[in-house]
Write a structure and sequence with these properties.
Elements: H1 3-16, H2 33-42, E1 52-54, H3 58-70, E2 80-82, H4 88-92, E3 99-102, H5 104-119, E4 131-134
Helix pairs in contact: 2-3
Length: 139
């Protein structure tokens, strides 16, 4: 798994605290919509006892929403879904996706600066960028 996915999972575990249950985590092979569809199928037996699902990114969340709706569930009335990235996919989802906004331009600029520091032989450091929740219709 990528450092990004491991960091997001670590943040989720921390936020959930004692409520975290690894049995209810779907480890996707990629971050595409098909992973969200497969997650819905994998957890089908649990869906009526789950209030909401937090996805690692917006693509997975959109695939999950599509599959849940295909299974007859209403979003967010039956189950809430959230994503991460606040990508264009979040606005194209039906219903529009509640997500975590991450400034992709700032992320790219920061990554470039860190790479340049490494090239110059300067000490690198961990950088954490601020995020914010964007509330829409899916949760």
């Amino acid at each position: 798994y990528s450092p990004t996915s491991l960091n997001r999972l670590a943040g989720f575990k921390t936020a959930m605290g004692e409520l975290y249950d690894d049995n209810l985590v779907y480890y996707a092979d990629d971050w595409e919509t098909t992973s969200g569809e497969m997650a819905a199928v994998a957890f089908e037996a649990h869906l009526h006892s789950i209030d909401g699902i937090v996805c690692a990114n917006d693509n997975i969340a959109v695939g999950l929403i599509n599959q849940l709706r295909h299974m007859g569930l209403r979003i967010p009335e039956d189950i809430a879904v959230t994503g991460f990235d606040d990508s264009t996919m979040a606005l194209l989802a039906n219903p529009k996706l509640t997500t975590v906004h991450q400034d992709s331009q700032l992320l790219g600029r920061t990554m470039a600066e860190l790479v340049l520091r490494q090239i110059r032989g300067e000490e690198s450091h961990t950088t954490i960028l601020k995020t914010r929740i964007v509330e829409r219709q899916s949760a």
